[in-house]
Structures are given as structure tokens and as C-alpha cells.
Amino acid sequence: MSLRELQEALARALTDPSLRTEAPALPPPLACVPTARLRAFAGVLEAKRRQRVQDALPVSCRLLRGRFPRLFAIYAAAHPPTEAARRAEVTAFADHAAAALRPEALVAPGIPGPAAAELVRYEAIRHHLRRQSPPIPVSPDFRKDERLLGLRPVLGPAVAAASFEFGVDRWLETLGTDPRATPPQPGPVNLLLARFAHPPLVRTRRVNAATVALLACCDGSMPLRQAIDGLAWELGAGDEEGRTALRVESLGLLRLLCGQGYLDWA
Amino acid sequence: MSELPVLGVGLGYRPELRGHLLAGDRRIDFLEVIADSFLEAGPERATELERLRALVPVVPHGLALSIGSAAGLEDGYLDHLARLVERLAAPWFSEHLGFTRAAGLELGHFVPLPFTWEAVEVVRRNLDHARARLGVPLLLENITAPFVLPGAEMTEAEFLRAIVDGTDTGLLLDLTNLHVNCANLGLDVDSFLASAPLERVAELHIAGVRPGEASPDLRTDLADSHDAPVPDVVWALVEQVLAVAPVRALVLERDERLGELDEIDADLRRARSIWEQARVAA
């Protein structure tokens, strides 16, 4: 057996979830390695993998306590640690955990499953943005509204907009000091998360649904004026007054975002 | 090897220690950073690195080069490493002697190699490749072995010698890993030190240990937990190796219980005391 074959067999065995319960089917040269030692080392590998995700989602980890490692074990069993998987691990785990938690009436006293699911997802988005580079500085010309309308803004890697049912941003902050804090009453919440360059941190801002939708439209495929007009039409604010209101609000927000280095410009 | 600079007593950098690292009368000659934390980092991490460099020399220590991979190294990863080494003007780059990648799987931790001539050839081939890309000498670190792979054609010490002989590759001898392996696998530390190429040891690592977890079918005496004071037996090894090896750097590693600054300071003071005594004796 070549070294390459040996390493591949070992890598598969150490990441095979059946190793927990069964003796691994290893080729002869490796069969003499005690299963207990392989199992213990596989546990170390999974613990290190889980630790990286826990470090990225500390509040979710605190909220879910013993549930977190169990959720991760199920996730890990279904997701071999390929290079691609490792790169998107936090987000992928958050999606997995959210799907598992969402149907549950209560995850803990006073904490509905959907709220816990949203908290994990929110924290994962925040983590993702924190790892991104800040957006490219914008031109000073952005201050001129008319010129701005002609530009093509795109959501840079350091901005994300998402809708939630619970005010998870505020809940997450409360959980930082009170681990028994319960989520606020549900209702439509639209959050814009963006990474500031100065100071370097991610801030969350509550915005209306139209703005979330507007930002989602800003993929660089059309000028901002056209995006706003299209959105206004879809939202039933197709008359000039509605479009103007939407434009004013959007421009106000965009000016804020640009001024603080939120948005990337194509 | 003789061209490598003497760096002194250093600390493995962890961001949690940032505020305390260089405050007060704490004296640290250099910092060793986890290279992987800075490879694809944004401007924040770059700034952090520059701030550290303005204070003390900074040396990169890798986790995922997978120098023992029979499938070879990843050029993209090497390119990132090369940029970091250049940015730091690092005198060397150190990595663990094992593999972390095989069959398209990222294992996330070091898996031991069999002590065979084929593995020696693979590592030497990968070292040549990495050396050409990085432009600085590499130091290889001995790892803790969760198990021994069958088919060994030599001891670990002989394996290390076979890899570094005739190259400019040095060794980063982790004395805690050595102590843990001897305890867990029933190896003899004196035999290791007698046959290992100590003349190639450029750096030492030391860290704390804790009792391992025992189960009915597995006995593990020690784990290199990096969360406690360095044990006396490891300090004794430091003195022993410093007396005979051309060591350029001694690094304290601490990854857990980072709030216990008194423990960390006590270890740093003891490291410096032993280091300075050894320098005087030399």
C-alpha cells in the first residue's frame, strides 16, 4: 500500500461517522491500529472542527448549551470536511441548526424554536461579514443625488440584508449579559447588516422591507433610478408621489451607507 | 542553519492576549503567530500584524501546509504563505511534521506519518517545493501522535534525521509533544534525544499538559492541552536540549485559560532565566 493510499484510507476512516459505533473497514496495514485510538482521535478532530464553529457563534453556543454539540455531530456526520465545506462551515452549520430548531415549539423555557433558529442565522451572517474586507472607498461625487441615481451600486461583500420574525439583533445583545434573556415578541423585522471600516466592526440597522428589497435589486444590473422605479411599481407605489417617497428614503439610507463606507460601487 | 538569527524567548500570539502582551515589565523578544489566521485576512488583521511587528519581530507558524501529504502541496496556499513570510520579513517558517489533507478531506489537525523511507521522500520533495516558494528555511515540528502507524522502518528520531540531512531544513522541537508521546506511547525520551539530530534544532516549543481522558479500552496519560503551566519535567528537557543544541528561539504556547496571566508570566520568567543561563554557559 502506497503512502498516498494509506493517507486516503486513514482520512476517510477518521471522518467516517460510522467509526463511532463500528470498527472501521481498513486495509490490512492499517487494521492493526487500535480502533479505540482511531475513535478517540476522530473525536479530537471533530471537537476541533466544532470549536472553530463555536468560536464563530459564541452566543448561539451559549443559548443552545449541550444541544450545540449534538446538532454539530449530526451536521458533521452529513457534511464531510472537504475544503469547500470548511470554507463555508459556519453558514452551513447555521442553516442546518436553524432547520432543526425552527419546527420546535420551545428550545428552552421562553425561547421558541423559530427565535433560536433566527438567532443562529443572524450570528452567522454577522460572523461572515466580520471576515470580509471592508468595501472600497466611494467617490466623493456620491453626495450629488442626481449623479447617484445614475450610478450602479451593488451590495458589496460587506453588506447583507435579511428579514427576521424576531428582533434577534437586540436579543443577541441582551444575551451577552443575561444568558436567560428571552426573545422579544415576534413581528416583521428587516435588518441590514454592514461592516464599517472605521471602527472595524459590524453594525446592524433596522430598515423597512422596501429598502431590503431595494438593496437586493442593487446587483449592478440596472441604474439605481430604474431599480427604485421598478420596486415602486411592484410595491404598488407606482405613482410619482410613491416613487419620490421611496427614492427619498432609499437615497437617505444609501447616503448614510456610502458616507460610512458601507457600499461597494460598480 | 548557522545563519538563522537568535530571537530569544517568545510567546505564541493569541489575540486574547493582545492587551496584556507588551504591557508592564513583561519582556518578550518576539512573537510567533499562527500563519493561517493571517493568510486571507482583511485590512484589520494586516494592521494588527503591522502593529505587532512595530514592537517585536514576528515569526509565522503554520497549521495546514500538510507537508507530509503524498498528494503534494497546494500552490494557492503556498502563495498566501509566501506573501505573509515576505510581509513579515521572517527568518524562517515552521510547520508540523504530519499531514492534514488527503482524499479531498481537510482533517483540521495533524495526523502522523509512518516512519518509512517513502514518507521521508515525500516530505523532502514537499520541502523542496515549499522552500523554493517561500524563500526562507523551514523548521519542522514533531507532533503528538494519537497512534503509531504500522510498517515503521526507523524510529521517530531517525526519521527526523533522514528528512533534514543534507538540507537547510531545521527542527522545531516541541518538548511538550515529546513528553506527551513518551508518556502515552511508552517511548523513552533519552533514547530519542540520543539519536535525534539535535544539531538541527533551531526552535523549542513548550506548553502545559493535562491528564488525558481514560476509557475502558484506551489509556491516554497526557494531553498537550496548552492550558496550564509548563510541567517541571518539560523545563528539565529545555535545560537538557539548550545545553547541546544551537537553539535560536524558545516559545511558550498557551491557547486556553488565557486569563491566567500570572501563570503565563511565571512561565515566561522561568523560560528567560533558563535561556539566559544557557547563553552564558555557551
Any overview of this molecule?
The complex is a heterodimer of chains A (about 270) and B (about 280). Chain A is mainly α and about 270 residues long. Chain A is built from 13 helices and seven strands. Chain A has helices spanning about 5-15, 30, 35-55, 60-65, 65-80, 85, 90-100, 115-130, 145-150, 170-175, 210-215, 225-235, 240-260, and strands spanning about 105-110, 110, 155, 160-165, 190-195, 200-205, 265. In chain A, strands 4-5-6 form a three-stranded antiparallel sheet, sandwiched between helices. Chain A is elongated, with a radius of gyration of 23 Å. Chain B is α/β, with parallel strands linked by helices and about 280 residues long.
Largest interface, C-beta within 8 A: A-B, 38 and 35 residues
- Low-confidence parts of chain B: none
Strand order of the largest sheet of chain A: 4-5-6
Beta percentage of chain B is: 15-25%
Mean pLDDT of chain B: 92
How far apart are the first and last residues' alpha carbons of chain B, in Å?
Answer: 17 Å
Helix-strand category of chain B: alpha/beta
Average of the residue pLDDT scores of chain A = 81
Structural class of chain A: mainly alpha
Our Rg estimate of chain B from Cα atoms comes to: 18 Å
- The percent range for helix content of chain B is 25-40%
Helix content of chain A: 55-70%
The protein's oligomeric status is heterodimer
Helices, strands, pairings?
The complex is a heterodimer of chains A (266) and B (282).
Chain A: H1 3-14, H2 28-31, H3 35-56, H4 58-64, H5 67-78, H6 83-87, H7 89-101, E1 106-108, E2 111-112, H8 113-131, H9 145-150, E3 153-154, E4 159-164, H10 168-175, E5 189-196, E6 201-206, H11 209-217, H12 224-234, H13 240-259, E7 264-265
Antiparallel strand pairs in A: 1-2, 3-7, 4-5, 5-6
Chain B: E1 8-12, H1 18-21, E2 30-34, H2 43-55, E3 58-61, H3 75-88, E4 93-96, E5 99-102, E6 105-111, H4 117-134, E7 138-141, H5 156-164, E8 170-174, H6 175-185, H7 189-195, E9 201-206, E10 210-211, E11 222-223, H8 232-242, E12 249-252, H9 261-281
Parallel strand pairs in B: 1-2, 1-12, 2-3, 4-7, 7-8, 8-9, 9-12
Antiparallel strand pairs in B: 5-6, 10-11
Helix pairs in contact in B: 4-5, 8-9
